[in-house]
User: What shape does this take?
Amino acid sequence: MSSNPNYSFFQSVEKSFDKASKFTNWDLGILEQIKACNSVYQMRFPVKLDDGSIEVIEAYRVQHSQHKSPCKGGIRFSDEVNQDEVMALASLMTYKCAIVNVPFGGGKGGIKIDPKKYSVYELEKITRRYTAELVKKNFIGPGIDVPAPDYGTGPREMAWIVDTYASLKPGEIDAAGCVTGKPVTQGGVRGRTEATGLGVFFGIREVCNMEDTMTKLGLTVGVENKTVVIQGLGNVGYHSAKFFREGGAKVIALAEYEGAIFNADGLNEEEVFQHRKATGSILNFPGATNLAKNTDALELECDILIPAALENVINGENAPRVKAKIIGEAANGPCTPEADEIFAQKGILCVPDMYLNAGGVTVSYFEWLKNLSHVRYGRMEKRLTENLNTKILEQLESLTGKSVSDANREFIMHGPEEHDLVHSGLEETMITATREIMEIWKENPSIPDMRTAAYVSAINKVATSYAQLGIFP
Ligand code: NAD
Assistant: This one.
């Protein structure tokens, strides 16, 4: 995962941290404590496969920081999993949570398997045994460490984890909060699927609402009518495209691995998705032009470029040809440090992954809160709000003698459902985080880029926690 062959992934995270810590005044000891991975649990356990053979499974859980409890971070199933990668990803979770004010420490887990090579029953056995190992060492629990999905895992695996945990901890009333990303029927929260794409939209919209930033970039204020290019039409890319289009921007190009398409009048992501499903390719979409290479999309003239597929796609080689004014890193690590330097020289604003794609962890936090409160969001206030709004509207209409349109009536009277509250909480989170990072950058213009400013924001928050906790004993 590291883009620099001279450093391991964990060392490259440490490098970014060191670059940013120069813009803070924290004690060296506090900075060293923040960087360190507090607990690394490497395990081996046997699993009997369907053919009767026994395989020894290698797995990890890393708790990078306990400055806030619990720790939080996904579990990855991949044959590339190794300790350095899990440590790096756990440390990035600490910084990500701090930036978006999610009160968790960073964690990450990994099982070194290619999930495609196992039957569903074998995967279930591996997941349940992994959970049991975590329970044995006190490495999981609603107040200790709360995993979530990552590469190769999803709601199904999270349901196995919560079921195993609850059966090993009978009577633990908050057991559902031991993991997030669960199916809604097992204590999950509505609004998780679209969370990352929606968070990307809220973050970029807030940047576009900043007059001084837009003036510097030579753009008008607001996201409306901005041209957007998106790479990847998976979960994050699809939802980013949807919310940009609904927000009044024009998605002029979409790229998938088989190619890219362009339409200056804008593309509808759902129609493109259906076309791809029917034909097996994004190409030849009615009304759009095919681009020769899928990477050509990254070099199109546009206001906003959203890489939402893979890491390292914008690098020292192609960054000089990028013409976008704003790059929104929806994927993890799409731009290399060499690209960052080129953007800084060219005056391109790169909005960093570490906070921009934090919608998933933010909504995981809401799921955990829901599990601890044992009540669905909206259950207590929906009817009260609707009754109150109905009364206010009736009074307004009778006092003015005028009536509002049906569409407005529905909007005004609507009491919040779970997904409305989750979206609203995410909107607040992304707006606040964007403003905090930009404020840090404004106060210290020698900070080279927004990524470094985001790290400074994270360091300040984690260091404040450590300083307030004191060093025990
Ligand atoms: P996904 O698998 O749903 O979608 C990825 C899409 O990218 C797929 O449609 C794939 O065909 C496409 N793709 C692959 N290679 C490509 C190429 N060379 N050019 C163009 N498109 C290509 O994955 P996702 O969940 O949307 O995640 C995308 C990125 O966002 C990853 O980097 C992931 O780590 C990151 N991310 C995801 C979440 C989340 O909540 N899903 C949260 C944070 C970060």
User: Anything to note?
Assistant: Residues 9 and 85 are 6 Å apart (CA to CA).
